[in-house]
Amino acid sequence: MDLAVTDLRFHYPGSAFGLAVKTLTVRAGEPLAILGPSGGGKTTLLRLMTGLLAPDSGTVTCGSTRLSSLSAEARRQFRLQNIGLIFQDFALLDYLTVEENILLPMRFHPGANEGEKTGAQAARELSERLEISAHWQRRTSLLSQGERQRVAIARALAHRPKFVFADEPTASLDAGRRGLVMNLLLDYTRETQACLVMVTHDTELMPLFPQQLRVEDLTV
Ligand SMILES: Nc1ncnc2c1ncn2[C@@H]1O[C@H](COP(=O)(O)OP(=O)(O)OP(=O)(O)O)[C@@H](O)[C@H]1O
């Protein structure tokens, strides 16, 4: 399922900052990198593509679902079921354990990933691959930034979403773990034919992305 943006315009209320996207398609299985300077609008564009922010005009369509046609509650349900989000600040619940954080989206949406048992297995496998399984029962407040980042990545993928949005998911990682995370995200995208949209400053990662977009070209 592809993601399509058409004639989108957005301004933060009371701010001079705005974005305009005439047309953009993210094809399933072909990751898109969003690039640009700090404050350039990368996170804003990501939030518009996920329906966390509503555009002033234009549409974002995920597969056959037009996000702007949904109510806020229906958008939330769509996100829980179909979207994996890796936030820049991780957005973990630090009073919960690694296990509880990763399984959280499936608690809100038990049907995701064909039932909770399968989801729990997927969560365990992801935590092993991301080398955080040794911390499974620890609260995330006790983990390093790089470990917390990998918990956020496992949580975003455990319910096997069709659309994955990652805001600088390798920013807190050493070179080895950066490779681990990129391989996982790219393997996941290929195997599930998901759409992956990733914000990054890391120019070394550029060859991995068949599609690239610079936000400087979109500001209005
Ligand atoms: N809630 C908000 N209200 C008003 N302006 C905002 C809001 N959030 C962000 N902005 C402004 O919008 C612009 C784009 O911000 P955004 O966070 O999208 O940039 P970015 O490219 O992701 O930056 P960074 O690389 O530093 O994370 C900035 O000028 C920022 O100050």
TrEMBL record:
GO molecular function: ATP binding
All copies of domain ABC transporter, residue ranges: 3-218
Keyword Nucleotide-binding (UniProt): yes
Top-level taxonomic group: Bacteria
Keywords from the UniProt entry: ATP-binding, Nucleotide-binding
Pfam families membership: ABC_tran
Name of the protein in its database record: ABC transporter ATP-binding protein
Native species: Prosthecobacter algae
